[in-house]
Amino acid sequence: MRPWLAAIAGAMLSVTLSSQASAPGRVHIDSGDLQGVVAGEIASFKNIPYAAPPVGNLRWRPPQPVAPWSGVRPADKVGALCIQKINSSDNGVGPPPASEDCLTLNVFAPAAKSTQPLAVMFWIHGGGFVNGSGTAALYDGTELAKQGVVVVTINYRLGRLGFFAHPALLKESPNELQGNYALMDQIAALQWVKRNIGVFGGDPNNVTIFGESAGGAAVNTLMIAPPARGLFHKAISQSGLGRERRMLLDRAAPDGKPSALDDGVQFATKLGLTNPDVAALRAVSADSILNATDTSQYVSPIIDGKLVPEHVDVAFAAGRQAQVPYLAGSNALEFAFYSETLPGLLGEALRFTPEQRARLTAAYGDEENFKANVLSDVLFTEPARELTRLHVKSKQPAYLYLFSVLSAKAPPNIKAAPHAQERQHVFKTLKTSPWPTDANDQRASELMSAYWVAFAKTGNPNGGGRPEWPLASEDNRVFEFTNKAPTLAPQPHAAALDVIAQKYR
């Protein structure tokens, strides 16, 4: 090529690359270029892989690095759900299809470049560790991002693909983490944030993990997980459990639970596999695994001594949790049902000695109040109270809340704010509510979202002229979000919560 033609070609290439680099919604991360969408003041980037697809020989393996791509990857549509039984009426479930190739995340960020790196809010969805996704419209991060943060929502492996241990897997990779693949995915996504979030304007040194139900339980578990240390700097657990007794990886638990390895053998037998090798396990279709999964059985974090070293409340009591600002709470009436024969975790929560049962009934005042409130209080209310108290004793800030907002248009059989109804208030996505909302919901959403964002930015939810939210204490008061202004209120059923607490001592 003649020198002058080469010069012109080089100049044209330079202009083209410069144009691509400055194109709205175009970014470069460690695995390649992404083209997102700029809508108004927010840029969104969807279906970003943070780990290799966990398929074939990578099923039931820790997440592996993403293979870099060439060219520009479109990031305008959400990715597949992780394998689950899809409930289209659940507002916490995104659009189908579902696939094992699902380890993706979504980023929502202010489109205008900030002069300072922005706080990051990293969302872990709920769904009992068996359903849900970070792709639901309920979890659209736009309204949070408008308040000056970068929002990340993730998918992670669910069900028996997310939590499963088996002797054949242990034999194949004895030095790898075992069993807790869903938690490993969450940690891999946090590592991705640490490497890449600066490209989107986020601060990798100011990351808040937050989640609800199973996502809140994951937050509490990451608080005690050594491999997660340093990857987040604040934590919010919404209805996140904290007292449940987990299965141990390689030995039976004192309460009679089998080891996770024994449980895995039983599940493989259910699949028709006796003494299988890893190839036979991985040859089973995802649909067969899904159909064989009994969600009343054990699908949740496993104490392996490495990623999950112990029970959450035991770690908090000993001060072994992450020393970061912490916020936790529950809803007014999470689960308003009772049965002596509930399966799985629910049945375990309602297992009392005759003496405990009698004392609890007396503390609630009568049998009717006991049956209406005990499941909610055992699973959610008392653990949040206990963990925030213990965190303050560790000389770290902790804030306790109670969500009691209930729209006048909620179904008449719902007497108080039920499980999961705070989510659309936090995200300011009231249009995804399962029932019509009203002006009280709008006011509560504005306030609750602002408290969450302030906490993510500074570790303190206060400011902006909002009612003062004090640190958690042992005075049996709780910061309550109501149909009016939030206020510091007496803790409902405090005497019953004291009896519940004694169950774990």
Task: Please explain how this structure is put together.
The structure is a single chain. This protein is an alpha/beta fold and 505 residues long. The protein folds into 2 domains: 24-324, Rossmann fold, CATH 3.40.50.1820; 330-505, Rossmann fold (3-Layer(aba) Sandwich), CATH 3.40.50.1820. It has 16 helices and 20 strands. An 11-stranded mixed sheet has the order 3-4-8-10-9-13-14-17-18-19-20, sandwiched between helices. The chain has a 3-stranded mixed sheet with strand order 1-2-5, with helices on one face. Strand 9 (118-124), helix 2 (142-145) and strand 10 form a beta-alpha-beta unit. Helix 12 (354-364) packs across helix 13 (367-393). The longest helix has 27 residues, at 367-393.
Quick tags:
single chain, 505 residues, alpha/beta, Rossmann fold, 2 domains, 3-stranded mixed beta sheet, disordered N terminus
Summarize the structure.
The protein is an alpha/beta fold and 505 residues long. The protein has helices at 3-22, 142-145, 159-162, 167-172, 181-196, 214-223, 260-270, 278-283, 286-292, 312-317, 344-349, 354-364, 367-393, 423-426, 439-458, 494-503; strands at residues 26-29, 32-35, 37-39, 42-49, 72-74, 81-82, 98-99, 104-110, 118-124, 150-154, 163-164, 179-180, 202-212, 234-238, 247-248, 302-303, 326-331, 398-403, 477-481, 487-490. It folds into two domains: 24-324, Rossmann fold; 330-505, Alpha/Beta hydrolase fold, catalytic domain (Rossmann fold), CATH 3.40.50.1820.
